[in-house]
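Reviewers of the previous submission asked for a worked example of the structure-prediction workflow described in the proposal, so we include one complete record here. The input consisted solely of the amino acid sequence. No template or homolog information was supplied to the procedure at any stage.
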Amino acid sequence: RGLRLIGPARNTDPSAAGATTPDTPIESVSEDSRGRIWAASADGVLIVATPSGTRRFDSRQGLPSHALYRVLDDGAGSLWISSPRGILQIRSSGVDELLAGRRARFDIVTHGLASGMRTIECHGLSQPAGAVHPDGSVWFPTARGFVRIPPSSAPPPPPPKPVIEELYVSGAPLAFLDTAILRRGARNVEIRYSARRLSSSGLVEFRYRLEGFDPDWVDAARFRLAVYNQVPPGEHRFLLQARDPLGPWSPAISLPIRQQPEIHQTWWFALLVLCAAGAAAAGFYRWRVHNLRLRYAAVLDERNRIAREWHDTLVAGFSAISLQLEATLASLKPDPDRAAEIVDITRKMVHHYRAEARRVIWDLRDSRPEGEALPSAIQDALHRLAEGRNVQCSFHLSGEPAPLAAELEHNLLRICQEAAANALRHARASLLEVRLDYQPDAVTASIRDNGAGFHIDETQANSTGHFGLTVMRERARRFGGSLEIESRPGDGTIVVATIPVNGAKSP
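From that input alone, the workflow returned the following structure tokens.
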């Protein structure tokens, strides 16, 4: 006791694993069965001297930080080291691997009360502080007598059999027989286990593994609880093995565990999502096709509307002009005065239908915005007609505006435009008033002016040139309505268009 290591060290860096220092207090020096010299120090350091050099081991290799008294080799594959807190056992093969650099730490077992010792306090006061008997047994002095470790010539006992005792989920026990079935969303799964060993049961070591979750065995040492925060859905097996200190591992026992998946983790949910995605794609495709068809139908409707406009105005007008020209040719020789009158009417017809052609073209280039209400469209049309003229226009709306069929609204707008244009162009009116009245079963548009007026009985299209009145009547009759005209010379004109709306509302 009280020896100190003297002489130069092979490695003077105290932080290195192989360093030695001259001031290391040595408790004892002994030789193992392979001729290596071991020195145990009071600061928990082991120093081994071999022909290749000196190595120093401390807590970085798994040694305790308290004093080490004596190192003995039992010649059967183990090194025994006494300390104030029990006797340490180290496999000789582990020492060889550590010296060769194939591992980083000792595989150490500490023996104490659980191994049959009366006290864990060994001491180095007795000299020697331990010895190996010729029969192979190892002796160490303690505070309460000697400890004898018999020779290990007998075959080691079979490893203990592990037992899975309890299973808890979120702190509540779970009953299980052949398989543990975990409910959806189970968390904090605790598996408690032990081993059947009557002697030294506290020294039994365990390791476990959850197949499909743990990539390798989990070394639990002497801890008897496995905790999983969450088990993946599916079928798993919990494997458990036990062994005595430094002994072989027992055959693994298994507990099948079935974790029920969450709804979003089931195959039928994935199939449902797939079907929903397919339905959404099909719905989008159908919507796209429907949208294209609607656009195509809108184009066809516009083409049909243009065709009706041309048929109702220009085609009919040119037919009337053709008849007037034929009548002129027939009357040219027998009645020149009549022929001149027909030519004058034809000239007026040409002027009228030229204006109609311009209006149709204007409709195509400057149609009212999509979604514009009929009252707003009429007001805009009046504003354009009165722009630059000395005329006062007013618009009055009564009743609750209701959406009508687009074609019906279009023809009502044209009737109002035609009547207002006639009042400004032919009657030279200075006051123009338009009223739009929505009724439950009809809509009425009235156009009043203070212009020159005319005789109703004399307004025949072939004699006066007021062809717009005929077009307005045809527009109203197309939807089952009527057009009424009140006028006297010098007293202005009132045009009233009434159209039923039953079945004419827009979808």
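The longest helix spans residues 267-331. We consider this example representative of the routine output the project will generate in years two and three.
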